[in-house]
Amino acid sequence: RLFRNIVKIVGLAVVMLMMDKKLALISFILLPIVAVLTVVFRQIARKTYRISRTRLTDVNTFLSENISGMRIIQIFGREKRKFEEFDDKNYKYYRAGYREMMVFAIFSIISLMIVLGVGSSEVMGNVISIGTLYIFAQYIQSFFEPIQELAEQFSTLQSSIASAEKIFTIMSEEPLVKEDENPVILPEIRGRIEFSHVWFAYDNENYVLR
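Structure (tokenized):
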């Protein structure tokens, strides 16, 4: 992929310079801006993905607990209440996913908007034709495609890191009951468990366990 992207960038750069040097140079000048945006995008995306994964965890946990306990929910007639709770968690997850998409969308189109803005003024001044601007827009999209591809791969990496953070958070929890450094090794035994004098009643002599 790296080799392919390098060849694509060099080839498109030559074609763009042959079509319109001014627009091509503007596009090349935007490369450092895209690099800076990548750094900013990394910080924002990390936070956004973390929120998104937290919301997804909430939804999955809620579904797991309530589907397994559906009989109890139905016995107490709490279906409507549980649906409202799920709807709230699902909406929060939707909002987190929406913000996640907007962050990437802003990053990917801002450079194209700048080039089209400059190119439009040249069209109005009859410097270049609309057809040239259209073709150039297609080339500029292809020119930034390798950068966008890296950004997409980075998005996948951020998603994986955010998910891994939640796993490592659980793994790093210190156990409340720690293993004894010098445990007593018991011999192999045979026996039985006996429940003696175990009673439970809700009301006086109305025993459920005797």
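Helices lie at 2-19, 21-68, 70-75, 79-124, 130-171. The chain is about 75% helix and 5% strand.
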